[in-house]
Every structure is written in structure tokens, then in C-alpha cells.
Sequence to fold (561 residues):
Amino acid sequence: MSDLRDLYQEVILDHGKNPRNFRKLEDADHQAEGNNPLCGDRINLYLKMDGEVIADIGFQGRGCAISTASASMMTESVKGKTRAEAEALFQRFHELVTGEAEASPGAPELGKLAVFAGVRDYPIRVKCATLPWHTLRAALEEKQETVSTE
Amino acid sequence: MLDVQAIRKDFDILGREMRGKPLVYLDNAATTQKPRVVIEALVEYYRNYNANIHRGIYYLSELATEKYEQVREKTARFIGAPDPATIIFTRNTTEAINLVAYAWGRQYIEPGDEIVLTEMEHHSNLVPWQLLAQEKGARLRHIGITEDGRLALDDLDEIITERTKLLSITRMSNVLGTINPVKPLIDRAHAKGAICLIDGAQGVPHLPTEVLELDCDFLAFSAHKMLGPTGVGVLYGKREWLERMPPFLGGGDMISRVWLDRATWNKLPWKYEAGTPNIADVIAFGAALDYLEQIGMEAVRAHERELTAYALEQLSRVPGIRIFGPRHVEDRGGVISFDLEGVHPHDIGQLLDAEGVAIRAGHHCCQPLMERLDVSATARASFYIYNTEEEVDRLVEAVRKVERVFSRAVN
Fold:
């Protein structure tokens, strides 16, 4: 059993408590909703696109420290990135939190998102960490239905 | 007083470690642990007298039938029902409530009729009535709750009226622990000509229950929340209703005579038990009833009242904690829902798990109640006969630790 401190790192606690980009974008042109009803994580994600680039991003909602921090750090990571770059980052993030694979050659750098590595030891929390990312994908694909990772 | 240390020896699972620490099991409102005698009764059936019941003309089947029917008698005695034929075995409380919603509801509910529920009901006492109301054009009414989690009884005259056909409420909330004043509510509903179902999933395992005294028309509860195995529920019903209602499920065992195009029904209680029932688990449930009867339900209640009072007192000293439900221990059972300022209940649950303390975090199948409390979830600790003050101390210490971990992150 790994130490819980690997899961609840300072950076995660900080973003969980003081989430960045925690706002509704009034001029959003893409949005999506994520909801894990069993555990009560809920997120509304707003995007402002400039062609293929995510020009601005914000979110609202409430959830556990893992899902809130994941949403907060995701918004910081993907702002200014293209659709394809964001998707590649999600792939890499997913591999990290599920512990499925090591980084493949040419995979993007995770940067600060690497703090979520501890999630792999708590399979039940993978759904918390990935809910914001699945919601981002739905927003980019302009899907109407609510996303869930439960 | 219960001899808790002696009781604990009957539960092997309580001796095991969790995350390298002695297990503190505080999720009894979800399901309780099972004493060795219950597990042994289950195994003994399969090992020594496994046979189908009500049909064989051989000794094994007779034996299995006798053991199965004895549990019906024990169950009747346990809740003070004079007639064992008024005890129907189902899969769980949910199925027992659905039985009434289908068999009674489809026959007796008409457009414009009203069904009265409360805001603190479990989904299993909400959704079956929603389905019925939608199908029949009936209306659902809900008794609200006060700030301290008791039923708001001020506008009862507005809610329980001549239009009310059914009052269906929980004896004890699985989230707030509130023990509801069901007896006066039942009397009031009866005076208006309505019938009453009591959801006893939390009440029957923790409080003495006398159905004749309550005068409820139906009572539903589950074996697995009172030391018994999963897969067994009980519906008690007044004989007049069970006789008048049509069957629930059709099939073997519930019939008297079958032609190609029609059938007549078996006598009570078998009219409502179609197909081979859960023989093994019903028999094991009998051992659970014996165990509780030996302790006595008054003693169970007294032990939980004491433990709950201690836990409320200790928990209320944790910085940032908010405890839901009634303040007075007389008004509540051994269920304590709480949250910590700035910490999601799931994070509380995860950190407690690391300390070997098993609690529940989530909406507890009470989404409308969560809306009413304006929370997405709560953390919940719930007690039973084997829990101790030392375990409450472990809980409180773990909650304090969560508070410390998360207060590090403030700005």
C-alpha cells in the first residue's frame, strides 16, 4: 500500500481548495457537462476556441479534491493548445493515472500533471481524475449528453 | 448492557486488519457483518439437507421445508405479528416495497389519488411510487424536513387529506438517523382512510418493533442489515390486504390450479412467493433472528444510543465538522452523517480507509435529501451491536487527521 501522501500531494490539495479558471465563460462557444452521480462529482466546462486553438477555458462545479484539482490543472495545461495537442495530453494523462503504459516515444510532456501519478494505486479514484478530461473531449466534439466516468 | 467483547468474538471478520490496522467497521446502515452461527447455518443447509421445498415427498425436502417455514414463524414473532402467513419473503426491502406498489397500487390507486412520502426517503421508497403515480395519474406529496433533520409536521393537515390513499415513510432515516414518529402519522392517515407502509430497513434492525402496536398495513425490511445474509427481504402485510390484493409475480408455487388460459392462487403466504425462493439464505436469516432475540432489541437500542451519544459528543469537537440530523439521541439511531468544511466526503472516506476505518461517503441513495441539505454527498458512520467506544475514538482521531491534512492547503 502506497502512502496516501502520494495521492493527496500539496499541489493537488492546493488546486482542490483554490481551483484556477473556476468561472463560467460568458462568451463560450463550446461547453459540456460531466457528472458522476454515485460519488457526487459534477463539472460544467466552458471553452472559447480560436480556430483549432483553445483560447480560453473555465469550469464550475463541485467534487472531491482529486476531481477539482484535476479540472483546475487541466485548464492550465490545455489553455493555448490545439485540439490535437489537448487530445494527446489526455491520452498521456490517462496512461499515467491508470498505470497502463509508460510514455510512448513522442508523447507530450505532462509537466505539473505528473503529480497525479499516485492515482494509479487507487483504481476507484481514476474516475475522479479523468472526469474533467472526458468532459473536455465532449466539449471539443460538441456532444450534448452529460459525460460520466462511473 | 451488552457484553460487546463476547459478541465481537462471534464475528471473525472484526479480527482482521485493513490497510495494516485493525478494521473499524462503521458502515452498518449499508450492511452488517454476520456472526459465525449465521454463516454456519447457511453452510449446514447446503451440506446436510439441500432440497427444494413445498414439493418433494421425500425426507430431505420435508426437512428443508420445515426449516424454511420455521424462519417465517420466527420472523413473525420478531416483529410481533400473530400470524406467520402474513410474512412474505422477498429479495430485499426494495422488492417488498415494489410488491406493494405493483400488487396493491395497480389495483387500488386511481387518477387524482395522492400518495404521501417524505423528503428523507431512500430511493427505494420514492421510485416505485413515482412509477405508479405516472402510470395511474396519481399525485405524490412529500412531508418536508426541519433544519435539524426531523419531519416538518406543521402543515400535515394540508398533506394528509381525504385524497391520500397511501402513506409510505421510513421508520428511521439511513442518512440522518432520525427516528420518525410513525405511530401518530399512521393513526392520522388511517383516520383519513389511507393505508400505511413503513420502510423498516433501518428501523427493524435497531429498534424493538411491534406491528400490532404500530398498526401499519405493511412493513418492509432486509435480512442483511440485521446480521443475516444478503438476498432476503421481508414484507409483513395485514391479512385483509394480502387476501384482497392480486399476486405480484406469477409462476410456480404461487398457484392453486393452472389451466392453459387461467389459474387460481395459492393460500397466503405462498401466493406472493413465486418460484423457488432463497431457501438457504432464509434459513440462515433464522440464525440471525435467534442471535438478536437472545440479546434483546431493547439492549441493542440502549447500546447504540450510548455509543451514538458518545460519538456525537466527540465528533462535535472536531474543527470544521458539520453533523446532520437531530441533536438529541432520543430522536435518532446509530447513524451519523457529517462533512468537513472544504473537504469532499469522498476524500474523507479515502483518508479514513487508510486508517482502517470503513465508513460510507456519497448520497446514500437519497438524492432528494442531499438537494434539501444542499450538499452533493455526506460522510456517514453507522453503528451496530459489536461497535465500541474505542472504535469511535479511532473514527474521531482519523477525522481529525483528515482535517489536519486538508487545513495544510488553506491559501
About this structure: Residues 87 and 236 of chain B are 5 Å apart (CA to CA). The first strand of chain B starts at residue 17 and ends at 18. The two ends of chain B are 49 Å apart (CA to CA). The mean pLDDT of chain B is 96.
